[in-house]
């Protein structure tokens, strides 16, 4: 069990490093100004969340946008959906309660009556999925430092952007220290089925102290290199491409939010 825990920690560390590697690529989408990508993603998320809990067709149509983004940025859509699994369990837990209270029949599919509770649950899952994919796209094509730079341009207080960056970096340190401690425990107790209950408190305390020490060292290294809480654009940005990206994103959100696109296409066909 301790080996399984270590493997999960290593996979989490690897996933964060993969995001950093994706953000460092020299692709067309990565070259777009971070403020343009941040604004487009925020607009998309707000549009998705504005739909009614029964607006199934409208929310389904909004999925065209993240699919297009992932193709444009050469990202794996399956990988993004796989990362959504943990969030999906949380959303299902929140939405299942509504299934028992909202029992009025809302749809009839092939003779099967579907209540409003099931429709609202599915809409909730889709909203969460589209929002998660959009945020994953933003991080994978921009990087946390450049997101903080975009937030800085929006006049977010410097302390908040610095805390956001350091929290992201501290998470990596926390996972790395957890992986080392899990490996050390497994070597000292190779036949143990997981970590003994009486060792939990000691290990958690040691994990906190060791990760804080490493985080302090990282911050001191950043300060020695001149970091003062100000973020800068790390590469030349494509201004015209960024403007086109924002306009297309806004146009998509307006059209698919205000018009029943699927219904119009169905009537034409």
How is the secondary structure organized here?
Layout: H1 2-23, H2 34-49, H3 56-62, H4 64-73, H5 77-83, H6 85-101, E1 105-109, E2 112-115, H7 116-142, H8 144-153, H9 158-188, H10 200-224, H11 239-258, H12 261-268
Antiparallel strand pairs: 1-2
Helix pairs in contact: 1-7, 1-9, 2-7, 2-8, 2-11, 3-7, 4-7, 6-7, 8-9, 9-10
Would you mind describing this structure in some detail?
The protein is mostly helical. Helices cover 74% and strands 3% of the residues. The longest helix is centred in the middle third of the chain and has 31 residues. The protein is flat, with a radius of gyration of 23 Å.
How many strand segments? 2
Q: What is the CA-based Rg, rounded? A: 23 Å
Helix content: over 70%
What is the average per-residue confidence, as pLDDT, rounded to a whole number? 83
Given helix and strand content, the structural type is mainly alpha
**Major sheet characteristics:** 2 strands, antiparallel
Shape: flat
Show unreliable segments.
none
Strand content: under 5%
SS summary, helix count: 12
In order across it, which strands form the biggest sheet?
Answer: 1-2
